[in-house]
Design a protein that fits this description.
- The protein is mostly helical.
- It has one domain.
- The chain has 7 helices and no strands.
- The longest helix has 14 residues.
């Protein structure tokens, strides 16, 4: 879903610091149909302990869990970002799809 490419381009000026990957993630989630969403949730549950899924949850927590996180900053820096984007819903959907163990630990405290 572009989490890994975003991470890989985060500090690369030649690749716009990953801005387009962040925007692609928004676009993918915004155009997800209900059937696709439900399937994604099933896959999340089935593979929740897979290392790639665990890492994806960490990336979401680190870069997209709040407006002040670097992924959200990069998304808002995109020339295609506009006030109509539903950023709170985007963050919520990402966190639901890729829950972070760090987030769960923070919420338990």
């Amino acid at each position: 879903m572009n989490l890994y490419p975003f991470r890989d381009r985060l500090h690369d000026a030649n690749k716009e610091f990953g801005r387009y990957h962040a925007l692609d993630m928004y676009t993918i989630l915004a155009t997800t149909m209900e059937r696709e969403w439900n399937l994604a949730l099933e896959l999340r549950d089935r593979y929740r302990d897979h290392p790639a899924v665990v890492e994806a949850g960490q990336l979401v927590f680190e870069y997209f869990a709040a407006l002040d996180r670097l992924g959200m900053i990069r998304l808002r820096e995109s020339p295609y970002c506009n006030p109509e984007l539903q950023l709170d819903e985007f963050m919520s959907a990402l966190k639901e799809l890729f829950p972070s163990r760090a987030q769960a630990h923070t919420e338990e405290s």
